[in-house]
Amino acid sequence: MSQDDNLNASIAHIMLCCVAGRGISRMHGRSFTDPGMHANFFIHGVLGFLHYQSRRFNNDFNAAYVVSYKATRYLALPCLMADLYRGNQNLSVIHLVSGLIPFTMALAGEENVQLGNLVIACNIISLCHYSIQNNREWEWYAAGAALFAYFLPPQMRGPKILYPLGLALMEYCAYRVFHIHYNTPTRRQPLAEKKRCKALDARIAGSRDRGMVPVDVAYDVTAKGQPSSLLTCIVDILNQTAIIHRIVKNEIERRTVGSRTKNVK
């Protein structure tokens, strides 16, 4: 890979850390998604940055990066599905085992790519089924992001930034699956809006009591209108990636010019 490709891949992994950090900030004690997806993606972002900048650190992070890559590929979706089906212990265990088997085989050096792809596809289909069954849109978005992250980069054999950016998109969608954002009603808001928010609070409390999906409600007192869409999420990720890329590139150019000046002196 060229130096620019390494730089772009490093920035994409930094972006993944930024998105995953939001999920880590709201970790639950009994959640599989927090260690299996949020923390997993954050660690992969850190190791990915170190891996693609290994020449600057004079260390080889390839072994750790490969293990992290397998973990993000085989454990993230099963952990997400295990939380979604927490009310059904059998389905929850099946999803967890479906991720542990290919991951364990990969660690043992006997990775079966076809089996791994089959497991990933089954979890994506299960996620779509859950979305249809419960009329939830962010599960659809998460399934699409997983399809993009896990199947598109290997087929394209193209830029290394696709995988971390796909994981970042999937991480954001998974975060929205478990966190509902809506505006805090004010005195001037209609009575129907206040009743809607109270009904939503009651439904969430009932879900927690029944051991269903752990939902964390965040009141957004500054945002106006409807919750952000998937398109807005993609635009935000791309904008932040461009900003980070520009900052890092300028810093590298500044250091390069400084080192050349010292050599001339």
Walk me through the structure.
By secondary structure, the chain is mainly alpha-helical. The protein has one domain. Helices cover 75% and strands 4% of the residues. The protein contains 11 helices and 2 strands. Strand 1 (179-183), helix 10 (191-209) and strand 2 (216-220) form a beta-alpha-beta unit.
Describe the secondary structure blueprint for this structure:
Layout: H1 3-24, H2 33-52, H3 54-57, H4 62-74, H5 76-84, H6 89-107, H7 113-134, H8 137-156, H9 162-178, E1 179-183, H10 191-209, E2 216-220, H11 230-264
Parallel strand pairs: 1-2
From the structure above, extract its key features.
single chain; 265 residues; mainly alpha; two-stranded parallel ribbon; 11 helices; 75% helix; globular
Q: Estimate what percentage of residues fall within beta strands.
A: under 5%
For the report, how would you describe the main beta sheet? 2 strands, parallel
Q: What is the residue-mean pLDDT, rounded to a whole number?
A: 77
Number of strands: 2
The backbone outline, from C-alpha atoms, is globular
Helix content: over 70%
Physical arrangement of strands within the biggest beta sheet: 1-2
Total domains, how many? 1
Q: Could you say which structural class the secondary elements and strand pairing correspond to?
A: mainly alpha
Instruction: Measure the end-to-end span.
Output: 33 Å
- Give unreliable regions as ranges: 180-187, 208-228
Order of helices and strands: HHHHHHHHHEHEH
Please compute the radius of gyration using only Cα atoms.
Answer: 21 Å
Number of helices: 11
